[in-house]
Design brief:
Number of helices: 4
CATH class: Alpha Beta
Number of strands: 11
Number of domains: 1
Distance between the termini: 28 Å
Bound molecules: ligand MTE, molybdenum atom
CATH topology: Sulfite Oxidase, Chain A, domain 2
Helix content: under 10%
CATH architecture: Alpha-Beta Complex
Low-confidence stretches: none
């Protein structure tokens, strides 16, 4: 609430044609931290990113190697299932669609499980991960992503409620069949579209 209440922009549409404030959400300038369990303390030096599952070859990236992938900056909104939305943050990182060009997928790869340090998981269809704005983000509004928000690296999925992006992401598992991630096993929607209010099962 607050600064956005007077903001006519709230009623306009976003860059993918949806009303900016999804139903049942309130805009806020705050950025609450929502973490299940402890915050894993991972430095850029310790961070290692892996892909496995339905891939021809398992692959790992160090922080330095990941930073050599094409870097994209996007301005997008953040929607939490607990009814708050944040507008217009600038996120920088590597798009999934750019990353996946460096992965030889097997033909049966249809789903993607994000794995985080600490054990959190969340699942999405490969096709949705290919959206133009699914980002592995390391920078927020020009600053290194704060640790409590998933630094050094998190996934951000602007078209889904925020639990669909793993903070402290450490790898992706490509699978042939869909498996529920952490919150998806615990009552949250598998599809998580904020404009359809897909919050729970
Ligand atoms: N690793 C990890 N990622 C996570 C979570 C978590 O508990 N652990 N919580 C999810 C949920 S439910 C939300 S709403 C967002 C919250 O991100 P924030 O803490 O930056 O607001 O992160 C998502 N990603
Ligand atoms: Mo959440």
């Amino acid at each position: 609430m607050g600064q956005f209440e007077k903001d006519a922009d709230i009623g306009s549409t976003n860059y993918f044609g949806k009303r900016r404030l999804p139903p049942g959400q309130t805009a806020t300038a705050r950025f609450p931290v929502l973490t299940y369990g402890d915050v894993p303390k991972i430095t850029k030096e310790q961070w290692c990113f892996s892909v496995w599952g339905c891939v021809e070859e398992e692959k790992n990236w160090t922080w330095g190697e990941f930073m050599k992938l094409p870097q994209t900056t996007l301005r997008a909104d953040f929607h939490c299932v607990t009814h708050w939305s944040r507008f217009d943050d600038e996120w920088k990182g590597v798009l999934f669609r750019d990353l996946v060009k460096h992965v030889k997928l097997k033909p049966d790869a249809k789903y993607v499980m994000q794995h985080a340090y600490g054990g959190y998981t969340t699942n999405l269809p490969l096709q949705w991960m290919m959206d133009e704005d699914v980002l592995f983000a390391h920078t927020l509004n020009g600053e290194p992503l704060p640790m409590e928000h998933g630094g050094p690296m998190r996934v951000f999925t602007p078209r889904r409620y925020a639990w669909k992006g793993a903070k402290w992401v450490r790898g992706l598992e490509f699978t042939a069949t869909d498996r529920p991630g952490f919150w998806e096993q615990n009552g949250y929607s598998n599809t998580a579209d904020p404009w359809k209010e897909e919050r729970f099962w």
